[in-house]
Amino acid sequence: MNGKNILVIRISINLCNKRTTMKVGLIGFGKTGKAVASAILKNENFELEWVLRKSPRQEDRLIADILEIDSDNQGRVYSLHNNKIEPFLDTHPVDIIIDFSSENGIFTYGKAAAERKIKIISAVSHYNEEQEAYLKRLGEYTTVFWSPNITLGVNYLIFAAKVLKSIAPFVDIEIVEEHFKHKDGVSGTAVKIADALGLKKSKINSVRAGGIVGKHQVIFGFKYQTIRLIHESISREAFGNGVIFVAENIHDREKGFYQYEDIFKPFLTDKI
Length: 272
What we know:
alpha/beta; Rossmann fold; Dihydrodipicolinate Reductase, domain 2; 8-stranded mixed sheet; 9 helices; 12 strands
């Protein structure tokens, strides 16, 4: 799994006035994964259970200590070096796995998760056709959600951009995406925006500078005026808020492949 990690949390939500605890696993403990874990630890409705990583590094340490967060949470690190994914999921069952790792991470846990009816939330920024097809096939056996950018704001931007283009299909459109200096490739979020608007990738303009977390801009060029829709991530904890929103809205979904549009529909259908 290329040194990636699996983080498990509990999400407490209210269902029909009855509190239910969902056990959730998160794959990926890089900068964004740690920011998501931090947001969860600071939310009183969540309890971090454990982290599973390929390397035995930091094994048996408290996650709160690793993140230097003052918390009573007792979640600890375990290693794939000493645990295979199938028996581990049997002895440490979860309801949802959240993936913040790499494109190939899905092949490590996907089949085992689907066989156990564990829901999957993938926030991996880009999949090739084969990987995306595999993700969709898993949706035949369990509930699968994918968004290349799981923050709420950028998905609001996509929705608003689609509405504007439907009103003015003739308008010139350009996409600008900005990220930290060493980010490789075109932003998966920018590709998602282009796909949603029916644009070619040549309409995406990339900027790499400093430590920019992430900024996406859709420019609509009319003859005598310009409209700009902008989303900027100020902190990676925005991804934590997105995870919470998605988890709360797919917990009772039937098996299938879902994206943000499917979650937004109940909120928007009667309002636009």
